[in-house]
């Protein structure tokens, strides 16, 4: 059991901060300026600390206050503490400014191979201490990863809002037909689905969201959907089309890389479908979880990159969707 004289003083961090500043400045005026407080507050703090410790910490010599031997000894004890506090403050500042940390990003293939790399380039170029884990999966996997907290943010293509996640619309586009540049239909501004029935058609796997959209477009037009080739992803369909394997209907994000001349392939053109077949690029985050400063900055980069895209089939940069409830 401790006696009254043995009891440790209940010293606040603020008093220690005043003491440490005085050790460096040696005048109450300079100390007050360095801490951004008044001179009387410095003097009062020093008196309070001396009373708590039962020690004289400074003696006046002319216009300066010189630390006593006891003060010098105590300062050596607390100097590492202020190094920790400075590191803490710098770490908090870097976190606030998005300069350090780790992000987990997931996307479906179309924005994952076009939009996200563009956003990531601007984000990481000025943040050497930030690391990003990035994966490309199907829409169901993207939503699951965001819902369970395995990913901080997801981006994918869908035809509207989705339950169980926060959603933000980035762009809206129209599905496009990819055709050889010298194809007769390439002269038209839009392409009717029925005009593709006599072509070798490259379809998208019906298990995928975009594959079902393509199939539905044929059904809505009252024509038979019978692809001779079928593949899992729109990017693969576009690659096959670029190599002369037929025509396909894909999203604008997947079409863009194949609209320039390809080595060993042919130049393609993208023509929006004549019928309504909209596709939304959406950003997803987990519900009920606050966004970190780092995540907010990266989300802003995604918005900026999305708004800068200028692909055939893309329309308004800020699609109007009903407010989320």
Q: How is this structure best described in words?
A:
- The chain has 325 residues and is α/β, with parallel strands linked by helices.
- 40% of the residues lie in helices and 21% in strands.
- The protein is built from eleven helices and twelve strands.
- Strands 4-3-5-12-6 form a five-stranded mixed beta sheet, with helices on both faces. Strands 9-8-10-7-11 form a five-stranded mixed beta sheet.
- Strand 1 and strand 2 form a beta hairpin.
- Helix 1 packs across helix 3.
- The C terminus is likely disordered.
pLDDT < 50 runs, ≥5 residues: 319-325
What's the helix count?
A: 11
Rg for CA atoms: 32 Å
Summarize the helix and strand pattern as letters: HHHEEHEHHEHEEEEHEHEHEEH
- Main beta sheet: strand number and arrangement? 5 strands, mixed
Structural class of the secondary structure composition? alpha/beta
> Proportion of β residues?
15-25%
Give the neighbour order of strands across the main sheet. 4-3-5-12-6
Q: What helical percentage do the residues reach?
A: 40-55%
């Amino acid at each position: 059991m401790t006696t009254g004289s043995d009891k440790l003083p209940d010293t606040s961090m603020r008093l220690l901060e005043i003491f440490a500043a005085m050790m460096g400045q040696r005048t109450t005026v300079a100390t007050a300026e360095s801490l951004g407080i008044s001179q009387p507050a410095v003097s009062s703090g020093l008196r309070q600390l001396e009373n708590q410790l039962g020690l004289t910490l400074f003696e006046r010599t002319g216009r300066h206050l010189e630390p006593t031997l006891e003060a010098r000894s105590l300062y050596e004890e607390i100097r590492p503490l202020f190094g920790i506090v400075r590191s803490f403050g710098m770490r908090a500042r870097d976190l606030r400014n998005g300069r350090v940390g780790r992000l987990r990003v997931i996307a479906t293939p179309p924005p994952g191979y076009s939009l996200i790399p563009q956003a990531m380039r601007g984000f990481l170029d000025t943040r050497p201490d930030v690391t990003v884990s990035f994966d490309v999966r199907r829409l169901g996997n993207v939503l699951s990863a965001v819902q369970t907290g395995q990913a901080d943010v997801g981006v994918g293509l869908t035809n509207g809002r989705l339950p169980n996640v926060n959603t933000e619309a980035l762009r809206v586009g129209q599905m496009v037909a990819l055709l050889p540049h010298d194809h007769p239909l390439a002269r038209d501004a839009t392409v009717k689905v029925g005009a593709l029935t006599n072509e070798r058609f490259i379809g998208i796997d019906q298990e995928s969201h975009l594959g079902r959209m393509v199939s539905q477009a044929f059904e809505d037009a009252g024509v038979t959907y019978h692809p001779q080739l079928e593949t899992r992803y729109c990017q693969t369909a576009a690659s096959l089309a670029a190599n002369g394997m037929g025509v396909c209907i894909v999203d604008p994000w997947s079409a863009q890389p194949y609209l320039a001349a390809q080595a060993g392939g042919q130049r393609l053109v993208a023509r929006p479908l004549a019928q309504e077949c909209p596709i939304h690029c959406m950003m997803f985050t987990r519900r009920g979880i606050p966004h970190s400063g780092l995540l907010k900055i990266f989300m802003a980069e995604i918005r900026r990159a999305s708004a800068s895209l200028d692909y055939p089939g893309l329309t308004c940069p800020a699609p109007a969707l009903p407010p989320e409830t």
